[in-house]
Design goal:
Elements: H1 8-25, H2 35-43, H3 55-67, H4 72-94, H5 98-106, H6 109-116, H7 118-136, H8 139-150, H9 159-168, H10 171-185, H11 192-199, H12 203-212, H13 224-243, H14 249-270, H15 274-285, H16 288-296, H17 302-324
Helix pairs in contact: 1-4, 4-5, 4-6, 4-7, 5-16, 6-7, 7-8, 7-14, 10-14, 13-14, 14-15, 14-16
């Protein structure tokens, strides 16, 4: 009879899950900015607005109502279990330095997604898990995860064109893409009129776009956070330029996704759609949780190389607390 051993890593990740999931499920750090929106749907499950939400959200809402008699705590626990577990699994399976990926996650997507934007938290977890499939060109596995992600948040629709975009264009193209985004933004051409015109013959798609694209508002693309990420992009470009031969196909694909995230922010800023601009930007940027450990792993003293990236993410963490106020 074959023996099954539990490794120390498995014990560590299990302990982390047992610690984080209740923190999120029982809102131990306080009520988040989206709490009352979800509470509204929770109390009025026949509300017409609920029909605009994704199937996965509505299914888990109904499942929780049927099995747990509409307990709000179990509802958040279910989402926390999915979002956090998928990401932890991805770190342990695909990151060269899983503990670094996890610390970066705690300073960013733990609060932003899994504690606050819980639907996006599950969707971004599936996206993170799909990135190696994108790199390998494993179309069937990748698009299965696309379907799973789209069941929880509309932002995951970006994964569909992303597959062909990443695999079509060269590294040099993506090294210039954010600059192209800035140049496109500066003339402030109104592309939305063309989008609305294209959707005019499809009433269902036009309604979906109007429902999820959010309010119209001018966006300052030269805000501190965006400029910080643009600076990070140039740092990574510099590292890749001098160490290109040491980068694998997966690592290059992760860089391409990061480049696309910055470009997408400028593109949706042209449309004056801050909700879409920030949501897509944040969704794609989760690739950094794998890309940064791969970069750091190129250096002999990786723990020293990681300090700068940790400071950057700590700055982002403080932004989420003080400016975004994810926990009011």
């Amino acid at each position: 009879m074959k023996s099954t051993y539990i490794t120390y890593d498995q014990i560590l990740w299990g302990f982390i899950l047992l610690l984080l999931i209740p923190i999120v499920g029982f809102r131990m750090m306080g009520l988040d900015a989206d709490y009352f929106n979800y509470l509204k749907f929770f109390k009025a499950q026949n509300d017409l607005e609920l029909l605009t939400k994704e199937f996965g959200f509505r299914f888990l809402l109904g499942f929780n109502s049927f099995v747990f008699r509409s307990s709000i705590n179990t509802f958040f626990l279910i989402f926390a279990s999915l979002g956090i577990s998928i990401k932890v699994w991805s770190f342990s399976k695909h990151s060269p330095i899983p503990i670094l990926s996890f610390i970066l996650y705690l300073l960013s997507y733990f609060l932003l997604h899994d504690y606050t934007q819980i639907r996006a938290g599950v969707a971004s977890g599936f996206f993170l898990l799909a990135l190696p499939d994108l790199s390998k060109g494993d179309k069937s596995t990748y698009f299965f995860k696309v379907v799973m992600a789209c069941m929880f948040h509309w932002t995951a629709l970006i994964m569909i064109p992303l597959y062909f975009f990443i695999r079509k264009f060269s590294l040099r193209f993506f090294a210039l893409l954010p600059l192209v985004g800035i140049l496109i933004f500066l003339p402030r051409i109104n592309f939305e009129q063309y989008i609305l015109s294209a959707l005019s013959g499809f009433p269902a798609l036009a309604l979906y776009y109007a429902t999820h694209s959010g309010h119209d508002s001018a966006i300052n693309i030269f805000n501190a956070i965006n400029m910080a990420f643009l600076g990070l992009f140039f740092v990574i470009c510099f590292v890749i330029y001098y160490m290109k031969d040491e980068f694998s196909t997966l690592e290059i694909s992760l860089f391409k996704v990061f480049s696309t995230s910055i470009f997408s922010f400028y593109f949706f800023a042209i449309l004056n759609k801050p909700v879409m601009a920030f949501r897509v930007f944040e969704f794609l940027n989760i690739s950094l949780l794998l890309l940064i450990p791969y970069l750091v792993d190129k250096f002999k003293q990786w723990y020293l190389a990681s300090v700068g990236f940790l400071l950057f993410f700590f700055f982002y963490f403080m932004h989420l607390i003080l400016n975004v106020r994810v926990i009011p």
